[in-house]
Design brief:
The complex is a heterodimer of chains A (216) and B (383). Chain A is mainly α and 216 residues long. Among the domains of chain A are: 69-81 and 94-127 and 138-166, no CATH class; 170-216, no CATH class. Chain A contains nine helices and no strands. Chain B has 383 residues and is an alpha+beta fold. Chain B folds into two domains: 23-221, Fumarate Reductase Cytochrome B subunit (Up-down Bundle), CATH 1.20.950; 233-382, Alpha-Beta Complex (Sulfite Oxidase, Chain A, domain 2). Chain B has helices spanning 23-51, 68-94, 107-134, 144-172, 179-183, 188-208, 242-245, 269-274, 301-307, 334-337; strands at 256-260, 265-268, 278-285, 291-300, 316-320, 329-332, 343-348, 351-352, 362-364, 377-382. In chain B, strand 5 (316-320) and strand 6 form a beta hairpin. In chain B, helix 1 (23-51) packs antiparallel against helix 2, helix 2 packs antiparallel against helix 6 and helix 3 packs across helix 4 (144-172). The N and C termini of chain B lie far apart (85 Å). The mean pLDDT of chain B is 93. Chains A and B meet through helix 1, helix 2, helix 3, helix 4 and helix 5 of A and helix 2, helix 3, helix 4, helix 5 and helix 6 of B.
């Protein structure tokens, strides 16, 4: 059972027993009407079988191939992250899934961005045959795709480095003790919160990191 | 009989323990995806009406704003591209629901699941066919335009139905403090924001690397789009070349423009050059999403119509010298025919038109799809 289903059972899901308002009914009816229009338009398409095959293939390729591959990639990322956290050396932020934000989020983000760029690059990269004229597909798409991926890798590396090793430069030890600084950092911004805090633990002052003289 | 129960033959749905397969994540990504699909549908309808005007709309099509079609079709393709990472993440979020147990609870539940199947199939179909069309790659047996258009209605209908069915859940997870959102594990909050930031970054990345094909200031970051504003004869992309249209280089000396109306007449190329010339800045905006503005010089169509004694307002048929092709003939509605910006252009950016841009004479009009900017014009007919 997924965590969503568990949340549903706790009462988060209000769909059962909720009244169907007139707007909702109208929207549903409009949806059915639009689908009907689509079906009648489809019946006029010359090669209807071809369209239906491609519709079915779109569903099958996503649900059977793409989604499981993405889920496996996510699982692998979590496993690697967990191992990194266990084997992490003290003071090096505990591996991939370590403290202070960690690298899992940026790495996942990098994979997502790279995947999206690749999906958009696939048609120009794979299109067989010569284009109709020199202004169609005029670029070196393989070079550009690799360039885009390199940019993603560079930005991700920089982001991880910044989040791990750089603190706001103005938070110096004595400066951090001043009341207005302590007030400003009474709660960390969401991207700087630890998992314990995010889970509802007691708020820890960002300024304490500095005043205690070391990274956590 | 008792042993039967221990046989491990009962199918079990897979278990998903990962975070963020929840309704709050689905609602937040779904909002963005819904906006992208709404833009795609509305701009697609606009493009459809402009390209195949129904009789009631033929005379009502506005010729302003001049950048209208450039904007709507650029948005159509850009929001379709932006929808690629949005759709993939949205489907990843709700994927465990594919294995809901039991698969079917009631007839209504079965119909709802069927409509979600149509929604997913249609969404993937639209993005894949649209993306391949911009690269002029047609690996399917059917004709692109009618199929893409019909499935757009089917998908939008399924989306509306989906929103109606899920309305209570969407409402329960709309805001951070909505009851459904509060019932979810609080520890997922930063993780969710991190994922949403990544999705936003992906949308930004695919937009940045493709939008330059229609938004010229981003031409430098146009790495992956099928067109680039700097590539093409006379610095302007082309869809159908003179060779492909079967026109080749029309000899200027024997060229004649016939204007058919109450007082028909024929002009040579030199006659056209001797008429008052006007210069306009108008974009070529293709249905495939690319567009670029250019400086055109030529004769006002309105002036030619007046000389032919055409009644005002009149509609005009523009006929190309090309021997075949779906866009050999186009029609100018009343607003376009009498717009002072509508020209039969002889020059592009100060140079004589190249054959691929319609030498000796081409139509250029504001707020009009590129395929209807007829090239190699040989005849104007007042309707």
């Amino acid at each position: 059972m997924s965590r969503q289903a568990e949340a549903d059972e706790k009462g988060g899901n209000t769909s059962r027993g909720a009244g169907a308002g007139p707007v909702r009914v109208l929207a549903g009816a409009a949806g059915v009407a639009l689908m009907g229009t689509g079906v009648s338009l489809l019946l006029d398409v010359r090669d209807l079988t071809g369209v239906l095959v491609w519709l079915g293939a779109a569903l099958a390729v996503h649900d059977v191939l793409i989604a499981p591959l993405v889920l496996l990639a996510g699982l692998a990322l979590t496993r690697v992250g967990a191992r990194g956290a266990r084997g992490g050396v003290r003071g090096t932020c505990g591996g991939v899934r370590g403290a202070r934000g960690g690298a899992r989020g940026p790495v996942r983000g990098a994979l997502l961005v790279a995947g999206a760029l690749t999906a958009v690059a696939l048609p120009p990269l794979l299109r067989p045959g010569d284009p109709a004229n020199s202004s169609v597909l005029p670029l070196d798409y393989l070079r550009n795709w690799l360039l885009a991926l390199a940019a993603v890798a560079a930005v991700t590396t920089a982001l991880i480095a910044v989040r791990h090793f750089v603190r706001p430069p103005f938070v110096r030890r004595r400066f951090a003790q001043r009341p207005f600084v302590r007030r400003r950092f009474a709660r960390r911004p969401w991207w700087w919160r630890t998992r314990a805090e995010a889970a509802g633990g007691p708020p820890q002052r960002a300024a304490d990191d500095v005043s205690e003289g070391g990274r956590r | 009989m008792v042993g039967m129960r221990t046989l491990p033959v009962r199918p079990r749905p897979p278990v998903f323990r990962g975070a963020l397969h929840d309704a709050r994540t689905a609602t937040r990504i779904g909002r963005w995806l819904g906006i992208a699909f709404a833009i795609c549908f509305v701009t697609g309808l606009i493009s459809h009406v402009l390209q195949h005007p129904p009789p009631w709309a033929a005379d009502a099509l506005p010729s302003r704003p001049v950048w209208g079609y450039r904007l709507t079709q650029g948005l159509h393709v850009a929001s379709g591209i932006a929808a690629v990472p949005l759709l993939l993440t949205k489907l990843w979020t709700v994927y465990p629901r594919l294995f809901a147990w039991p698969p079917v609870r009631s007839a209504a539940h079965a119909l709802e699941r069927l409509s979600v199947g149509v929604l997913v199939a249609g969404s993937v179909f639209e993005l894949v066919t649209g993306l391949l069309n911009t690269a002029q790659w047609y690996p399917w047996p059917f004709s692109f335009v009618p199929a893409h258009y019909a499935v757009a209605w089917l998908t939008t209908g399924a989306l509306l139905l989906h929103l109606a069915v899920k309305a209570p859940e969407i409402r329960a997870h709309w805001a951070r403090r909505s009851p459904g959102a509060l019932a979810l594990p609080a520890a997922d909050g930063p993780d969710r924001r991190s994922l949403l930031a990544a999705v936003a970054a992906a949308v930004g990345a695919v937009t940045l690397t493709t939008a330059g094909q229609s938004f010229t200031p981003l031409g430098r970051t146009d790495l992956l789009a099928p067109r680039h504003p700097g590539h093409g004869p006379q610095g302007l992309p082309v869809n159908r070349t003179a060779a492909a249209a079967g026109v080749g280089r029309v000899p200027g000396a024997s060229y004649r423009l016939t204007v058919d109306g109450p007082r028909p007449y024929t002009l040579t190329l030199d006659d056209l050059r001797a008429l008052p010339q006007h210069e306009v800045e108008l974009p070529i905006a293709c249905v495939e999403g690319w567009s670029k503005s250019a400086r055109w010089t030529g004769v006002r169509v309105a002036d030619l119509l007046e000389r032919a004694g055409a009644p005002r307002p009149a509609r005009v048929r523009v006929v190309s010298l090309q021997p075949r092709g779906a866009y050999r003939v186009s029609e100018l509605g009343r607003a376009h025919a009498h717009d002072p910006l509508t020209l039969l252009a002889l020059r592009l950016n100060g140079e004589e038109l190249s054959p691929d841009h319609g030498y000796p004479v081409r139509l250029i009009a504001p707020n009009r799809p590129g395929v209807l900017q007829t090239k190699w014009v040989g005849r104007l007919e007042v309707l």
